[in-house]
Design goal:
- This protein has 417 residues and is an alpha/beta fold.
- It contains 14 helices and 18 strands.
- It is 33% helix and 25% strand.
- The N and C termini lie far apart (74 Å).
- A 9-stranded mixed β-sheet has the order 3-2-4-5-1-6-7-8-9, with helices on both faces. A 4-stranded mixed β-sheet has the order 10-11-13-12. A 3-stranded parallel β-sheet has the order 14-17-18.
- It binds thymidine-5'-diphosphate (TYD) and magnesium ion.
Length: 417
Amino acid sequence: MVEDSGKSAVALGVKSGKQLKTQSINSIESSERSARFKTGFSQLDEVLGGGILPASVSLLAGQPGIGKSTILLQLASNIAKDAPVLYISGEESAAQVKLRAKRLANSHSENLNFASSTSANDIAATIRSQQYKLVIVDSIQTLSLEEVSSAPGSVSQVTNSGNVLIRAAKSSDTAVMIVGHVTKDGTLAGPKVLEHLVDVVLNFEGDRYGGFKTLRAVKNRFGSTNDIAIFEMDNEGLKPVLNPSQALLAERLNTDGSIVLATIEGTRPILVEIQALVNTTSFGYPKRTASGFDLNRLNLLVAVLQQRTKLNLADKDIYVNVVGGLKLQDPAADLAVCMAIASAASGRKLDDHLIVFGEVGLGGEIRSAHSSERRISEAKKLGFTAAIAPKTAAKGIGKFVLPVADLRSALIKYINK
Ligand code: TYD
Ligand code: MG
């Protein structure tokens, strides 16, 4: 066993490597931006900070079935129009990948190569051959190093294999993208360890079946982590969603419990429908369920609603749903969630032409939200006429904003009609 011999698997694995080529920092910087290559998805390029940088290592993490293999195959064939790309799968056979590639739009290219392998050493040697501009490894969980005795997918295999690939990428000019599966709660040890090692970590999340899928950089050594790319799966693979607000509101039915929230995803304003359903509890303990919204935050907001507005929810089941598969992290979603619950509980709808945003404090006060102007301009673009928003948002924007100071007065004024 490697551990017993006192030598790490990584040291053994890179024994065959050659001496690194070095160059001055200045020369690297001057060519940095132009050297990036485009993925063919402009939103994804922005997420990456302008495209894929040679010799960079990115980890694409997401639940099984979310579309990781699909997006990488699409990206690979886009890049293969200009440069040789290698797609390595440890999960699927050549025939299976071919079958998938055939279904995807414009995935025919002489420069798109395929290999099936689960050996980290073989893959590292292939990366070092400098033959390819981009090497995609699908997935890290299938890889193993002969020098490590544990099973593929174990923490030590994932970490050591990852390390070998990263070193190979850095010593050549080849960009590497690695797929990492995560479990439903994102806790698999492997990819979490890997996050520290790689340059870029992309999270692919959303509904596995239908709905929007969002791709965001949670770590990026070469760019910001503010932008997101939004995709939708159809039978020709993943398509970018260029006007998400419009798509998200297309099927909206204005009933009680439905509120349009102006949120910010990354740097982008998006209008999204928040739905709430409130029901009398049939068993002793009231049930609270949230989809696309943090459950702890929901419980807190229900407590604030009870204490600060005297809305009685103690014997009510409450369900909150963010339409379209988005997972909201924006604190300004609070007010919309509270108003949706109050609207559902009272059976009264909010006026059709209103959007809502604002953070709710424990005292029931409405706190300011960042990027108010962008939220409001998105609402105007989609034909809304007013925004229920924190007082601070009204500055400079004038009549569009209906300022509210606290939750109780907001509900009395706009829901309790
Ligand atoms: P996949 O990329 O294999 O997910 P992952 O690699 O993250 O595990 O694909 C996910 C799902 O997408 C799969 O269940 C089938 C579906 N799909 C389509 O709907 N259309 C398509 O064109 C492709 C290729 C897949
Ligand atoms: Mg896959």
